[in-house]
Structure formats: C-alpha cells, structure tokens
C-alpha cells in the first residue's frame, strides 16, 4: 500500500504493454497487472500459429521485431514481447487477478488475488483497462458443453492422430485447426451454422480448406448446429435431419468476447446493442473519470475491428492525455 503509481494497466498483452511503455516514456510510473502470464492470450494461441500480418505491425515502443520468415509465428511474438518488457524494465504483477477497484480519479485502489489466495492492493492516479477478449469464448450454451472432451481453445494436433475430431465454427481459427488436424492424421468433421465459410478467412487458408472439403478429406456440415454434447459424440441438427457424430474431441472455435461485466463493475457505460463503451476517442478516457480503455475492448461486440496492429497506438493517445493533464495540474 506504500507504493503509488501514476497508472495501473490491467492486462499484460501487447496493448497493455504498449500503454505502460508510453506512460513510462512520458516520465510517469506505470504498473502492469495480469491474471495470467505475460501476453496470456498469445500464449494460449495454437502452438503453430502464424500471424496474418508482418513483423513491423506488431512492434511496440519503437523496438524492431525480427523473425526468420515473412510473417511472425506465435513463438516469435512471445519472445519479442518478453524482450521488450525487459528492455523498458516494466514493473509487473503477473498471475494476479483484479478482484475490485475502489476510489476515484487520482486516488484509485486496485485489489488483486493470486492463485493461492493471497491478496494485494495497489494505489494509483489512473487506470488503463486493456483486458483483451480471448479469455471468454462465445459458448453454444447447449447440454454437455463443459464435458472434458469439449474445448474452446485449440493447441496442437498430435494426440488426435487416427481419432474422430469435430471442429465447430467457420472462421479462421476453425479452418486452420481443421486443416492442421487433418494433416496430422485425424478424421475431421467441420460443423458450421452458415451456408459457407466466413468471408475474412486468410487468403492462403481459404482455397486449402475448400479443396479439402470438396475432396471429402475433411467432412463439411454447413447450415448445421450442435444440439448436445455427450461422451465421445456430438448431436448435430442439419435442416430437417439429426446426426450423431463420433468425436474423441470437439473444438468449439466460435470466437471470443471482452469481459463486459468487468467493465460494468468499473462503472463504464456500454451501449445496449453493440456493447461499445462510452469513451473520448481522442484521449480514450471512459465515462468514468480517470479510467481509460485500450485495445479490442473499445470495439464492443465487433472484436474484428481492432487488432494488435491498431490497438498498440492507443497507449500513445492515453499517455499524451495523462501528460497534458499533469502539466495543467502544475
């Protein structure tokens, strides 16, 4: 309780790190808090994932990102953000979940709890919420969704060799998982509620997945939805027909959403239909004085509008606003 920070950044992803870096470069003292590891969301990406973008568009703090290939991998990104955090000597508290925030502008107290139950409290002038969206999957809310063989995250395919696997979804994550599982010898069925795959699938992935489905190497079930999960099988409704698919494992890859409840607990007002928060587009300050928002959470339900590529600049806007306010107070 003795330390006092100019700003606490909640979230240690690229946007949270970028915000802390810019605040520190402006002569202020930031603290970064995260309930998981550094770049917790990136860490839980598929092991072999390749980014859609080029290295320079993932850079923060004006530190160059180098990698061996044209497009960076998950491992490239994790290494880069580790080294960048070390370079700027950011103060961090990892594996501490924020349980509540008390106080008001200029005098906030952020309370946290670790996995072993230990509690901590940190004082600050301002708060930057950069909590991302990958921690909360879009659930189907059908019976059996919490069974052990049902997962909302995909890691790697080796253990599913010669096994029946069902992938639910029709966008990039589902298509890439289905392809990787197929190439590692799994028998894959892709279930998608729409008549065709998503429009924003990566240009090099689309022909691959479409050709595999056309050739029958991956079974595609379109205009279909899951009605029930049972041990080692999935019930699917397809127009007027019901199907029961064998499944050693099911990957429900239907997207993710920000923690809107956390924002509401902070007092942030969300638009009823879009869940977009109230904020000043220039300073990124929310309707709650002293609480700033950065990254994908400002897009509400539209999580495809903001990526690392544009969210990384929010920190500069926030730092500039904090510095300007500090100058006025002198």
What does this molecule look like?
The chain has 8 helices and 15 strands. The chain is α/β, with parallel strands linked by helices. Helix 4 packs across helix 5. It is elongated.
What class, by secondary structure content? alpha/beta
What is the rounded Rg? 22 Å
- pLDDT < 50 runs, ≥5 residues: none
Give a count of the beta strands, DSSP E runs of length 2 or more: 15
The whole-number mean of residue pLDDT values reads: 95
Q: Quote the distance from N terminus to C terminus.
A: 25 Å
Helices and strands, in order, run as EHEHHEEEEEEHEHEEEEEHEHH
Morphology call: elongated
Roughly how much helix do the residues carry, as a percent range?
A: 10-25%
Tally of alpha and pi helices: 8
Approximately how much beta-strand content do the residues carry?
A: 25-35%
Largest sheet, described in full? 7 strands, mixed
